[in-house]
What we know:
Helix 3 runs parallel beside helix 4 and helix 8 packs parallel to helix 9. The chain has one domain: Ureohydrolase domain (Arginase, Chain A, 3-Layer(aba) Sandwich). Strand 3 and strand 4 form a beta hairpin. Strands 1-5-2-6-11-10-7-8-9 form a 9-stranded parallel beta sheet, sandwiched between helices. By secondary structure, the chain is an alpha/beta fold. Helix content is 32%, strand content 18%. The longest helix is centred in the middle third of the chain and has 18 residues.
Amino acid sequence: MSFQYLSPRDSPKFKDRYTTKVDESRAFYEKGKRGEVGVIGLPSSKSSISFSLAAEAPVTIRKTLGSFSTYDGDRDHDFSDIVWLDYGDVQTHPTDLQETLHRLNQSVTDMLETEACRRYIILGGDHGISFPSISAFQKKYGRIGVIQWDAHHDLRNLDDGGRTNGTPFRSLLEADVLKGEDLVQVGIRDFSNAKAYADYAKEKGVRFYTMGDVERHGVNAIVLKEIDKLKDKVDMIYLSVDMDVVDQAFAPGCPAVGPGGMTSRELLSSVAVAARHPLVKAMDIVEVDPSKDVRDITSRLAAHVMMRFMYL
């Protein structure tokens, strides 16, 4: 018996001989193996202020990569030769949030120590994962510049709940991992923040741009201007993409959806513009909750954000 049409271990999948899907360019990390981009999942969302299953996002986003090809029609180039190394997902602690933060930081540190890739993508999780992740990059590279796409400042005080998905950048500033002048926030939305946190950002020298600024000046122009300011001060630039920067019409699967955000095209274009700069070494993608999504719309957009970073 040949079982010609059965494959016990794999799901049946159509294969076009001329098409390479993005997930077919994945290699799992093992010692000695190298790739262009390293991908790690930080599936932590228990510190979210609102109920969130964003911990499920790394698996879901990776799965959606199988829906897209490696060919960029606009540039008429096939990126099938770009290998991305998958380091897997961190095993978080079931109850101890501080232990989870330690595990996330240590795992990113371990990935960087392999020196197997030129650039890295970190899949959250809620935005709380940016604190241990950026801390690990700071230890490796030195002075870090951060461009943060976000509807929120994420500079909440630490007294009303400890470290949450609303505190990563306050945590980084207060731990002296990040200088205020090296943090740029793009897409801050009306009626989504407290005045106290806008004032705190100004006090610390954080440069932030509201959606009104984005409308007036264009997000690509803002990003290019800020990279030009950062490039002579920092040792590397880290992109932090909170998917709730996007309007709820384009990203319904975020815990904090709202109207008046960026379009998907604005996000993809501005990430691509930033990723092309040689100082940009890493990007995290956070706040995708697959349980709230519709037909994986938000996870698919996050996958395209990954591709804009991978395929320069």
